[in-house]
Specification:
The chain has about 260 residues and is an alpha+beta fold. It has a single domain (about 40-260), classed as Immunoglobulins (Immunoglobulin-like, Sandwich). It is built from 5 helices and 15 strands. The longest helix has 16 residues, at about 1-15.
Length: about 260
């Protein structure tokens, strides 16, 4: 009798399962929404007397919105930038000059929020509010390791809110940024400050000046890995990777992660 009951149960389960259609076996679950972050590209220079005021504005914005919501990169470039010489440490880079020329920067300080048009720093707050109100179409996760000044970084991009049937196409860009760099700076009063502490200083592009082409659909994950050698002049404890996805519509998402030794 017991065997008959068990056999009946098995037959019931078999028959019941046979009525599940193929379209009911796999149900698509939309990825969880992620908070949007914005990128400020601040074109600055050590010989720019008004640039400390822009840096103060960045600090205020990060206090108001959080340093995860507002990620800044100080790109030292152009005629007010300064290359290292025998006497002074300079923060200007050739890659920074390439960005300066590409975006046709005419004065400093000036910057872009999520690669919109160049804006005076007094206008950054309004653009940040607009961008933070939008949804983030992708999320970016970074994993970093450092050994003997050799950096390995893995970037994972997940399509979070991409239109059905569409692909978000653009570029993935990774930058190295250093905080708390002590170097001279001309101040608003015209005086030279030899002990000025610079924040979020652009150091190098990990994956080329303009990054790598990337396309991702909603629910799809794209993973890239990169290696780089860290200059002896940089303090590894203060270095971070800033990663962002951008296209013709601007920066779609950005994140910043400190290096782990």
């Amino acid at each position: 009798m017991r065997a008959a009951v068990v056999l009946s149960a098995v037959l019931f389960l078999t028959v019941s399962c046979s009525h599940i259609g193929d379209d009911e076996r796999l149900i698509y679950v939309k990825p969880a929404a992620v908070s949007r972050s914005v990128l400020i590209e601040d074109f600055t220079g050590q010989r720019c007397v008004n640039c400390p005021s822009a840096n103060d504005e960045i600090a205020r914005l990060q206090r108001d919105y959080g340093d995860r919501a507002v990620i800044a990169v100080g790109i030292h470039a152009g005629p007010l930038g300064f290359y290292t010489n025998s006497r002074y440490l300079g923060l200007r880079t050739e890659t920074g000059d390439a960005y300066f020329d590409h975006w046709q920067v005419e004065y400093q300080p000036v910057g872009m929020v999520d690669r919109s048009e160049l804006l005076d720093f007094s206008s950054w707050n309004g653009r940040i509010r607009q961008q933070l109100a939008k949804t983030a179409p992708v999320s970016i996760t970074l994993e970093t390791t450092v050994a003997d000044r050799q950096l390995s970084v893995q970037a994972t991009v997940l399509g979070v809110d991409v239109a059905p049937g569409s692909t978000l196409a653009g570029n993935l860009q990774l930058w190295l940024v250093e905080d708390n760099v002590t170097a001279f700076q001309l101040m608003p009063d015209g005086m030279l400050n030899d002990a000025y502490v610079h924040q979020h200083v652009f150091r190098a592009a990990v994956n080329g000046t303009w990054g790598d082409a990337l396309s991702v659909k909603e629910g799809e994950t794209v993973t890239r890995r990169y290696d780089a050698t860290l200059s002896d002049e940089w303090n590894v404890a203060e270095l971070s990777v800033v990663a962002f996805v951008y296209n013709e519509a601007g920066v779609q998402q950005v994140t910043k992660v400190k290096l782990k030794e």
